[in-house]
Write a structure and sequence with these properties.
Order of helices and strands: HEEEEEEEEEE
Helix content: 10-25%
Structural class: mainly beta
Length: about 170
């Protein structure tokens, strides 16, 4: 009987320790239809998670996954736009990040930008740096885009010019 009790206590302890472990990045995984922007440099350090409040998948020009969200406190808004160079829904696969201007010339390409407005009338626009890759899954009428920590740079010449973007979207 004692062995069963000790075994049970040991198992409970082991499961409790495993449940408390954090991931390597110290960031929790994103809930569905959220994205996180991390800025960490000499002049600024911030991490904001945006929750989708609207989203569309349009066919005007390039295929565009356009998501509007706000942070959990509602202090600022963010528009995340993912442009695919496909006609019709983008097929599943790996897409290479390129600039919006080069989108038509690169096969299986995507351009990503994030525009944030924190109620200051100043929009902060970040574009994904080229030659990174993201995975896209399109099945049963559902588009899924999920990636972690792609490099972004801010439009213009600013001190906080670099950021990381993580995304977990389904439309």
């Amino acid at each position: 009987m004692k062995q069963i009790i000790y075994l049970t206590l040991g198992l409970i302890t082991l499961l409790s320790i495993n449940a408390c472990k954090k991931d390597d990045k110290g960031k929790s995984s994103l809930a569905l239809n959220t994205w996180r922007i991390d800025v960490d440099n000499s002049s600024m350090k911030s991490s904001v998670v945006y929750t989708q409040i609207s989203g569309t998948f349009s066919t005007q020009g390039y295929q565009l996954l356009d998501m509007k969200g706000d942070d959990n406190l509602g202090l600022d808004r963010c528009w995340l736009r993912i442009y695919f160079n496909t006609i019709g829904p983008p097929p599943s696969g790996t897409y290479t990040v390129t600039s919006y201007n080069n989108l038509a010339r690169v096969q299986n390409a995507v351009a990503i930008n994030s525009t944030t407005n924190s109620n200051t009338n100043i929009d902060v626009i970040h574009w994904a740096e080229e030659n990174q890759t993201i995975q896209v899954i399109f099945a049963n009428g559902t588009l899924e885009v999920k990636f972690d920590n792609i490099n972004m740079f801010r439009e213009g010449n600013f001190a906080n010019s670099h950021a990381k973007l993580s995304v977990n979207l389904r439309k």
